């Protein structure tokens, strides 16, 4: 790798945290007047608001001003091609269904990918003023405090986050829940996969499973979990950007159990 790679990543990491805070403030202003928002339905249980679109445009503007040669992939607008080898992956508001109904469980998500790896991940919860951030090999932090995954040793010692979207049938989810409960566990869903993954990294959840996630929902959170001492399924970030995929993230002790449950449950 070029000698300036660490500097490149450090600069982008600082930018990512600052940008998420700026974008989060804009999103929070929309959240505080949700009754005025224009909301569209993209599909079954799949909503988008003017806040999603405008917050992504704000992030893209800041990216263009600071890293014009980087590629950009976002949920709400067309991708842009870059030449630097770095790709930014944006979810302006993860948890839109919560956002538009006044439920305070949504995040601004920004990841940066280099080659097959996610090198930067930032998840901001503006409502609770929590910034979850990590760089590859640099650890994971909540508001600059180091994070570690839970020390739980079994399903009976914590909650497993589960995700569900309209991209898959409900059968797999129902089977996964059955296995979790049969194993002595309980499940948790907050309709923001990114926030749930941040909670795994911070030791609040013992794991997270979802049959299919898009890259903008999961890349940042997977890096957080890995850097906080957890385990994730090995994936190529470039393939996740193109196709999305299954997500399993957990404490080292519980990871194999959740992989088995996912294998048994998901197509």
Question: How would you sum up this structure, described in words?
Answer:
The protein is built from eight helices and 14 strands. A hairpin with a 2-residue loop joins β8 and β9 (145-146). The chain has 267 residues and is an alpha+beta fold. The radius of gyration is 17 Å and the shape is globular. A seven-stranded mixed sheet has the order 3-4-5-6-7-8-9, sandwiched between helices. The protein has a five-stranded mixed sheet with strand order 11-10-12-14-13, sandwiched between helices. A two-stranded antiparallel ribbon has the order 1-2. α1 packs antiparallel against α2 (50-66) and α5 packs parallel to α6.
Arrangement of strands in the largest sheet? 3-4-5-6-7-8-9
What is the gyration radius calculated from CA atoms?
17 Å
Regions with little confidence, pLDDT below 50 for 5+ residues: 43-47
Describe the sheet with the most strands: 7 strands, mixed
Structural class: alpha+beta
What does the average pLDDT come to? Answer: 92
What is the terminal separation in angstroms?
38 Å
List the total number of helices: 8
Describe the global form.
Answer: globular
Element-by-element helix/strand order: HEEHEEHEEEEEEHEHEHEHEH
Helix proportion of residues, in percent? Answer: 25-40%
Beta-strand portion reads 25-35%
Give the gist of this structure.
This protein has 267 residues and is α+β, with helices and mostly antiparallel strands. It has helices spanning 5-31, 50-66, 96-99, 170-182, 193-201, 215-227, 237-243, 255-265; strands at 39-43, 46-49, 71-74, 86-94, 107-114, 117-125, 130-135, 139-142, 145-146, 159-162, 186-188, 207-213, 231-232, 245-250.
């Amino acid at each position: 790798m070029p000698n300036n790679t660490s500097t490149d990543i450090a600069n982008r990491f600082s930018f990512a945290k600052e940008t998420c805070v700026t974008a989060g403030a804009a999103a929070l202003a929309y959240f505080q007047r949700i009754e005025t928002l224009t909301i569209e339905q993209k599909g079954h249980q799949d909503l988008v608001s003017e806040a999603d679109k405008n917050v992504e445009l704000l992030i893209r503007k800041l990216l263009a001003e600071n890293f014009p040669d980087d590629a950009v992939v976002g949920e709400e607008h067309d991708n842009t091609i870059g030449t630097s080898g770095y790709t930014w992956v944006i979810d302006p508001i993860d948890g839109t269904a919560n956002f538009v109904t006044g439920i305070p469980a949504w995040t601004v998500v920004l990841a940066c990918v280099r080659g097959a790896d996610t090198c930067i991940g930032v998840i901001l919860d503006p409502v609770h003023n929590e910034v979850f951030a990590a760089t590859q090999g640099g650890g994971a932090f909540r508001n600059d405090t180091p994070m570690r995954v839970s020390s739980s040793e079994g399903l009976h010692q914590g909650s497993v986050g589960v995700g569900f979207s309209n991209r898959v049938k409900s059968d797999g989810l129902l089977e996964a829940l059955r296995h979790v409960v049969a194993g002595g566990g309980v499940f948790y869903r907050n309709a923001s996969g990114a926030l749930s993954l941040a909670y795994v990294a911070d030791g609040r959840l013992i794991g997270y499973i979802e049959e299919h996630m898009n890259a903008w929902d999961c890349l940042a959170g997977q890096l957080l979990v890995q850097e906080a001492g957890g385990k994730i399924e090995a994936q190529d970030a470039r393939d996740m950007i193109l196709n999305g995929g299954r997500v399993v993230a957990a404490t080292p002790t519980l990871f194999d159990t959740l992989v088995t449950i996912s294998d048994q449950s998901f197509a």
